Each structure stands twice: as C-alpha cells, then as structure tokens.
Amino acid sequence: MPVLVGKKAPSFSAKAVQGATIIDEFSLDQYLGEKYVILFFYPKDFTFVCPTELHRFQEELHEFESRNVAVVGCSTDSEFSHWAWLQTPKSKGGIEGVNYPLVADVNKTIADAYDVLAGEYEVDENGNLSVKGELVAYRGLFLIDKEGIVRHQVVNDMPLGRSIREALRVVDALQHFEEHGEVCPMDWSRGDKAMKPDHEGVSSYLAN
C-alpha cells in the first residue's frame, strides 16, 4: 500500500451531497490555503458501523471547525444514495442531521487514488473488466494540511470503527508543531509538554 504522507493529496472533482443539496462539482481544492481537511472513506451507505462514525463526526464537527478543519466523507455510493440516507432519521438507520459533504465516488477512482479500494479488478486486452470481491472503500482517514499535503493517514478494515478523539489529537499535534516548532511524543494531547527538535530539547523533556 502506497504511503501518501508527505505527498500532495490526490485531486478529484465529483458529485457530493451536503444536507439536502447535491453539489455537481466538489473538490478539495476549495480548501487550499484556507483550511485543513479530514477526508474519511467508509464502505457503504445504509450499513451498521458506518452511521456510528458519520454521526460522531457530526457530533464533534464543532471541535474540527474550531481548529479550522473541514470534514469530508466519501464512499463509492451514488449521490442519490447519499441524499436518501441523509433524509432518513437516525431512528431508522439514517444519518439525518449530518451536514458536512459526502462525496459520491461512483467510478471508484477516488478510493483507488487514495489506495483504500477493497477488491481486485483488471482489464484484459479486449477491454473487458473482471472484478474479484466487492469494490468498496476501506475505512481510510487522511489529514491534509492547508497546502494540500497529506500529513497523517490511517486505514482500518471494514469491521473496525475509528476514533474521533485520535483524529482530533493528530490535528492538534500538527497545529502545535506548525505554531511552535515542537514535536509531539507518543500519546501527546493538547496542553501536554512537547519536545524541541534538538538533542538539548529531548534531554530536557526526558529529564522531566
């Protein structure tokens, strides 16, 4: 699996849904120079683990927004599936109330570019497509900085839900480094002591 950290986030333009609005051409380029982005992939609309994640991102959306982070979801479902799920109440398995963008990766090209596409496919010399398994996205999450560079990525298998707290912690660590030039040790959280990136700073940190 390619590591995208340190590289430009793959660009795309696709349909998306935000609330009850279908967006014809959605791109992360709109955030360049302005916002950080949490782009997360999930396998399918109208499933079991996925709505728990989408609702949690909504519940913590104010925390991301206070850090100048845009949250964007993506799956290989169509924009019509996204729209229908967004109009379905939570009590009936829907995600009504989620109001960040959900990208429709119907051609699987976005998940493929971020290397989170499950299943295998190939095209023979006659142009015939053969598929092994189901072409849906794993639970990939990417933190992209304001310059469009991927600074963090994590990919979970489909049964394994993610941690919103960890996503926020990594955002805090990146922003602390950018503001103070200090690196963040294991399990660092906002407000904890960080480390100066030199031998003197490391020695001082370890002594405390």
UniProtKB/TrEMBL annotation:
Residues 3-176 form the Thioredoxin domain. Signal peptide: none annotated. SUPFAM superfamilies: Thioredoxin-like (SSF52833). Pfam families: 1-cysPrx_C, AhpC-TSA. GO terms for cellular component: cytosol. It is found in: Cytoplasm. The keyword Cell wall biogenesis/degradation does not apply. GO terms for molecular function: thioredoxin peroxidase activity. InterPro entries: AhpC/TSA (IPR000866), Peroxiredoxin (IPR050217), Peroxiredoxin_AhpC-typ (IPR024706), Peroxiredoxin_C (IPR019479), Thioredoxin-like_sf (IPR036249), Thioredoxin_domain (IPR013766). Thiol-specific peroxidase that catalyzes the reduction of hydrogen peroxide and organic hydroperoxides to water and alcohols, respectively. Plays a role in cell protection against oxidative stress by detoxifying peroxides. Belongs to the peroxiredoxin family. AhpC/Prx1 subfamily. This is Thioredoxin peroxidase.
